[in-house]
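Let's inspect a concrete specimen:
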Amino acid sequence: MGVCFDHGGLVYNRTIEENLLLPLNYHHFCSQTEAKERVTHYLNQLKIIEFKDLRPAFVPAGVNRLVILLRSLIHFPELLLWNNPTMGLDEDFFKPVIELVREMKEHHGLKHIFIASEDFEFMNVFGFEILNFENGKITLLGQQEQVA
C-alpha cells in the first residue's frame, strides 16, 4: 500500500534519496543495489535528480510534494491512498505524476487507487468513478467524461 497525506511525510534529517529508499529498504522489496537504481531512475524520469542529496528543508515545496507522491509509489504498491495529492504540487509536475500513475497501473501492478481531492481537473484525468462525500451522504458523480 502506498499512502500520501495532505501534509508532511518526509523525514527532515534524511536526504531526498534516503527518503525514497526508506520504504524499499524497510520492507526489503528489493536489494540495496536495485533500490538505489530504482530511486535514481524515477528521480531522473521526474527531472529532480539534482535534489537527491539535499534534505527536504533545502528543496522547493513543490519538489518535496512530488517526492512524497513518488515515495508512495516507489515500492510498486497494489493499493494507493492519496489525500489531496495536488496540494502544493507545482503545475509543471501534474503531467509527470499522471504518467507515473499510469506506468504503475500498466507495468507494476497498481490495481486500486483511492484519491480524496477537490481538484476535479486532476481527478478527471484518470477516468475513475468519482464519489462525492458531503453532509454524510455519498453521491456518484460519474466518470471522466461526465464530470466537468
Summary: The mean pLDDT is 88. The first helix runs from residue 16 to 26. The CA atoms of residues 28 and 124 lie 35 Å apart.
